[in-house]
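Bumping my old thread because nobody answered last time. Still need a sequence for this structure:
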């Protein structure tokens, strides 16, 4: 009798599960087949990582422009290649001189991160020689928009960044600036551009009430000047590091940097993290070394190899499939404790670019990363159902002409149906 009851219970559960899948597929197909989606390209893959079931798949093996969903691959790379604290710089001491070279660490003198420990280390040494010739990348990534040079989402990449490679401008009694070095390079004027294209001449209206960040042009001379100002002592530029075994100085906890990248969709941090990852492979700072390493090793099992040209997703040259996104999200879900993993992603209705979307009732049900460029909006991550199942998904929308808010509304309908029905 007990065996019969158990069989009946299992039959009911399996039948109910099959029914809920069928209902979800039907409602999702209905939305994605509507007139609204006719002139755009949409891909969606949803899986249950525990049962290995595919709840829904459409164009999941096709390539899409991922925008900031690219940061999911950057996060995976950093988690796989970096220790618990960010490598800040490599150094060795010869006689009375501290020789240092960068790792690409984005946090030194950054307004969001605490640099005291590393500054104290540098100040303990009377003579410092700075090596900058190990950076082997272009300042801008392939396919970046040249006319976005003046906006805070596109700072230059570098091997020894300071202040996040941006000048922070604000009004107090007068126009003020961090770093202070740029104060006399700010013109109090309401102008069409934030900065001159070829020089560090900035424009900031004296009537502005907000704080803005403007990327500055980097070079070795400016890096030397800014570091000297911060340390209040002279720094020498050296053309090469002396022979000897280099040590590594570490900066802030790595997770604090990952959260900043994912929650704020910080392009600069994403780019620099690939550079830092490359610094663990060799002294040459080239983010593509980290990308190639990950693709050949931890991601050798990808069925659709991406075109992966930068760390942030600023470039429209990037191409990823929903299946690849789900694949890498699944790897992280399998290997990283859920509490830590979900803390790295924005939560629906709570944080980051999800603060105003996908609100839970009452708890968040979506932990995911968005990615947006003109006419493109994507989101990939984890969905928690009312039955407390965790699903992994990637939802990509390319080439639409409607407002992105309308695309998000339809995505939200699908997510809520899955949340409530599975």
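Sorry it took so long. Here it is:
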């Amino acid at each position: 009798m007990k065996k019969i009851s158990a069989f009946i219970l299992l039959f009911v559960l399996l039948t109910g599960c099959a029914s809920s899948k069928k209902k979800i597929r039907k409602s999702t197909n209905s939305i994605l087949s509507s007139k609204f989606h006719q002139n755009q390209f949409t891909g969606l893959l949803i899986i249950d990582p525990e049962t290995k079931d595919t709840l829904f798949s459409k164009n999941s093996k096709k390539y899409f422009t991922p925008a900031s969903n690219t940061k999911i691959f950057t996060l995976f790379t950093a988690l796989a290649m970096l220790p618990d604290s960010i490598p800040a710089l490599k150094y060795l001491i010869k006689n009375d001189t501290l020789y240092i070279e960068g790792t690409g660490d984005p946090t030194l003198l950054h307004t969001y991160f605490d640099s005291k420990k590393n500054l104290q280390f540098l100040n303990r040494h009377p003579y410092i020689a700075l090596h900058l010739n190990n950076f082997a990348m272009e300042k801008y990534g392939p396919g970046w928009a040249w006319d976005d040079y003046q906006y805070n989402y596109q700072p230059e990449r570098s091997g020894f960044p300071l202040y996040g490679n941006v000048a922070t401008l604000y009004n107090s009694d007068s126009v003020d600036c961090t770093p202070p070095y740029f104060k006399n390079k700010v013109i109090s004027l309401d102008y069409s551009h934030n900065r001159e294209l070829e020089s560090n001449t900035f424009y900031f209206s004296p009537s502005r009430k907000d704080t803005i960040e403007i990327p500055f042009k980097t070079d070795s001379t400016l890096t030397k000047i800014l570091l000297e100002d911060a340390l209040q002592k002279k720094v020498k530029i050296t053309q090469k590091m002396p022979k000897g075994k280099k040590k590594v100085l570490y900066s802030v906890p790595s997770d604090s940097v990952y959260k900043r990248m994912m929650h704020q969709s910080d392009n600069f941090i994403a780019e620099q993290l690939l550079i830092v990852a490359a610094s663990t492979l060799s002294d040459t700072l080239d983010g593509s070394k980290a990308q190639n390493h990950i693709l050949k090793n931890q991601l050798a099992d990808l069925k659709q190899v991406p075109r992966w040209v930068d760390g942030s997703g600023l470039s429209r040259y990037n191409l990823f499939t929903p299946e690849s996104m789900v694949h890498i999200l699944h790897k992280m879900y399998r290997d990283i404790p859920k509490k830590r993993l979900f803390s790295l992603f924005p939560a629906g209705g709570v944080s980051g670019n999800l603060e105003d979307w996908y609100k839970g009732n009452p708890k968040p049900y979506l932990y995911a990363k968005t990615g947006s460029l003109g006419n493109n909006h994507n989101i990939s991550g984890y969905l928690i159902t009312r039955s407390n199942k965790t699903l992994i998904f990637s939802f990509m929308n390319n080439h639409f002409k409607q407002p992105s808010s309308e695309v998000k509304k339809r995505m939200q309908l699908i997510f809520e149906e899955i949340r409530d029905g599975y």
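The chain has two domains: 26-74+288-421, 75-287. Let me know if any region looks off to you.
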